[in-house]
Amino acid sequence: MDYKTLLVHLELNGDNSGLLAIAGDLAQRFGARVIGIAAAQPIQILYEEGWVAGEVLNRDREETGKEIAACEAQFRKALEGRAAAVEWRSAITYEPLADYIADQSRCADLIITGKDIGGAFLDNTRRVNVGSLAMQAGRPILIVPKGVTELPMRHVFVAWKDSREARRAVWDALPLLAAAGRATVLEVAPKDACAAAQARVADTARWLERHGVSATPMTVASGGIEAGQLHAELLDRKCDLLVAGAYGHSRVGEWVFGGVTLDMLLDPDFCVLISH
User: Fold this and answer.
1) Residue 215 backbone dihedrals phi, psi, to 5 degrees
2) Pairing relation of β-strands 254-257 and 241-249?
3) Quick one: which of 184, 130, 149, 170 has its CA closest to 19?
4) What is the pLDDT of residues 105-158, one digit of tens each?
5) What is the 8-class DSSP label of residue 41?
6) Would the CA dihedral through 119, 120, 124, 126 be positive or negative?
7) Phi and psi of 120, rounded to 5°?
8) How does pLDDT run across 217-230, given as a tens digit for each residue?
9) φ, ψ at 180 (rounded to 5°)
10) Which of 17, 130, 217, 222 has the fewest Cβ atoms nearer than 10 Å?
């Protein structure tokens, strides 16, 4: 199983060099075609009206169009000769940008994006809510933090929770796990639950072995908050790539990935593959 089509989301008027470098590497590795995508919402005018508002909107659309064209040029230059084929899609839309990208993900095997990029105080016209995208897309999402320009996959971890989302994530990550050749299946559990946790990660490791991935089961006893413990373990073990299931806690309005909030996962400089 390989990724045949990658959907790469670019930030308007931003630095996409690391994102595109990793997309190019993966396109070469899997012989994949790559679709670049960028989107923005029109400027939100609260008090202007009449011809003044129309003039502002027209100028905004013109500037956004220039930003999209610059993104497309950057995308095509970075992927030249590295992908089986390339395609470009873009839109200026009133719908949430996560909704637009999720709709387009029907044609891809993997979405590559940054963290909740493009956001500014009281302005979400450039922001893609990655949590919302993960819930809607039905495709795995590879999140590339700023400053990361390669995906070496020396130290790959699966953040295990015995849930549907975790099982879906490890399946969706199989092409990357197979490319890495090895992974650690890690569960953080209370001390009195470590034996059961070890049995779960051992099961998952054996399953990965049958798919050609040398997997090490590992259980860490939590001394407090499990999220913090996992965060510390990943930093200590120099994680290159984390695979985690994504699920929402709408009651508190927070997206949670493998038991760890997205912001906490992206504090270290490693990529995260999430799947719902």
Assistant:
1) -120, 140
2) antiparallel
3) 149
4) 999 999 999 876 445 544 678 888 888 888 899 999 999 988 899 999 999 999
5) P
6) negative
7) -140, 160
8) 999 988 766 667 78
9) -70, -35
10) 17
